[in-house]
Amino acid sequence: MAVFRSLLLLFVVVFSTITVDCVSPTPVIKAAYWPSWASDFPPSAIDTTLFTHIFYAFLMPNSITFKFEVSKSEAILLSNFTSTLHHKNPPVKTILSIGGGGADPDVFARMAANASSRRAFINSAIKIARKFGFDGLDLDWEFPTNPKEMNDLGYLFEEWRFAINKIAKTKNHPPLLLTSAVNAAIDFFLFDVYRTYPAASIRKNLDWINVMCFDYRGSWDTTVTGAHAALFDPKSNVSTSYGVGSWIKAGVPREKMVMGLPLYGRTWKLEKPGLHGIGAHAIGVGPGEEGVMTFSQVKDFNRKNKATVVYDSVTVSMYSYVGTSWIGYDDAISVTIKIGFGRAQGLTGYFFWAVNGDKDWRISRQGNHHSSSLHTK
């Protein structure tokens, strides 16, 4: 029954994708974030035939002035990143991402709180992007904590877009792209303080949003295993299908949405080795660094330990287990279905976190099966 469900879902997704492409061809963004600390995976190692945009992760402004102070070592990294990727065959566009999951969100909250600090941040960000030859800027603020900060974010996007367009017109060159990494759902419905992203400002001022469709489950809850990037979840709204739907319902255009896909898995330690399904009781994190393993590490672990691999058709995800070790992740099968789902929904593309996590480009190349044209932004 599970195999039949999977085949049926894949047929529906592929058929819907073909229908969307035939009626209204959708440009495709095939993007990935490159961690600047990945010293063993330089930009030159990226196969640019598989991508259209690569994000440099990350840069942070000064926590007091909100301006960017680039050290000599960072300047070398930034210059090498853009020059290498612009001269690859084929070249890809480069976007400087600001913030990240490990950044202090209070810095952005204070910066966005008034016009003068927003202006200092915006002008400095544009200057840095132009200096090092980036094609765009991306904000990864994780996350605004209340309605006021969400409103401030809307003001920030509006003023940022205005400044980008003004400078581009003055200098007579194309405007920088402006994007933002955002939560999987438009609203934070599970949190004590309810808030929602400024949809109107996003619709008007951003080229697209990178919807982070992952980290639904993880080491913050070690009691049960989970699909951390579930496409569907019949028991809750914590899923990609719900999240994407919430953005569309709020009026954010489908063509301004890029779906996030993880090139990593999350791990748990099973309470009982014999009970190993999604939702099985666990007593802690499993293998990997703080319960996280790249897809490449997962594949090596499974092979070395002769782990049992299971495809879960309900959530459209994979998991493997051996002894008390349990890993939830995506592979080529689940990613192919998810990319097809995104295309069927009319989304403009997908992105991976992070590009260095793949194994022989097995997952990254799946998007080529769904791409009918390249993005021209």
From TrEMBL:
Keywords: Glycoprotein, Glycosidase, Hydrolase, Signal. CDD domains: GH18_plant_chitinase_class_V. Residues 28-374 form the GH18 domain. Residues 1-22 form the signal peptide. One of its GO terms (cellular component) is extracellular region. PANTHER family: CHITINASE, NOD FACTOR HYDROLASE PROTEIN 1. This is GH18 domain-containing protein. It comes from Tetracentron sinense. The lineage of its organism: Eukaryota, Viridiplantae, Streptophyta, Embryophyta, Tracheophyta.
